[in-house]
Specification:
- It contains six helices and five strands, in the order H-H-H-H-E-E-E-E-H-E-H.
- It has 153 residues and is of the alpha+beta class.
- It folds into two domains: 85 residues, Arc Repressor Mutant, subunit A, CATH 1.10.10; 54 residues, Ferric-uptake regulator, C-terminal dimerisarion domain (Dna Ligase, domain 1, 2-Layer Sandwich), CATH 3.30.1490.
- Helix 3 crosses helix 4.
- The radius of gyration is 17 Å and the shape is globular.
- It is found in: Cytoplasm.
- One of its GO terms (biological process) is regulation of secondary metabolite biosynthetic process.
- Homodimer.
- Belongs to the Fur family.
Length: 153
């Protein structure tokens, strides 16, 4: 995500936290910024290494608490298959999402196919199932990586 996009995302996150009356602490802000600036998903221990370089007191609970908060606020998504985290490009969107993940370069694209989410929710209800969390991840190869293969570069 380009720097201008990460600044915009941080501004949106700050406004959203203010509206909700939750604290967007400097550590939470920095963790979100690091995730937003990463080209793909970022693992918790990579975050910890980067944060520890700036804040000597940073420990795993610090990072995990910040991640829990960011996920709860819809600012970050956990990529289950990679055990990594990615910034949500549209934190104001309140519906479910799907992630396209390139297995080669790690690029992540977020989709909002609300009809798929509605179909899944409806079918779960019909089966008497109470969904607590939904993760839809599609792993494959992006155009760019497939193009490199075709050109031999």
């Amino acid at each position: 995500m380009p720097m201008t996009d990460s600044r915009l995302l941080l501004h949106q996150a700050e406004r959203q936290c203010q509206r909700r009356g939750v604290r967007f602490t400097p550590i939470r802000q920095r963790v979100l910024e690091m995730i937003a600036e990463a080209s793909g998903g970022l693992k918790a221990y990579d975050l910890l290494d980067r944060l520890a370089a700036e804040h000597a007191a940073a420990r795993p609970p610090t990072v995990y608490r910040a991640l829990d908060f960011l996920i709860e606020q819809g600012l970050v998504h956990r990529i289950e298959s990679l055990n990594a985290y990615v910034a949500c490009p549209c934190p104001e969107h309140t519906h479910g999402f799907q992630l396209l993940i390139c297995r080669d370069c790690g690029r992540v694209e977020e989709l909002h196919l609300d009809d798929i989410n509605a179909q899944l929710a409806r079918r779960a209800r019909e089966l008497g199932f109470a969904v607590q969390r939904q993760t839809i991840e599609l792993l494959g190869r992006c155009d760019s990586c497939r193009g490199h293969e075709a050109t031999g570069s």
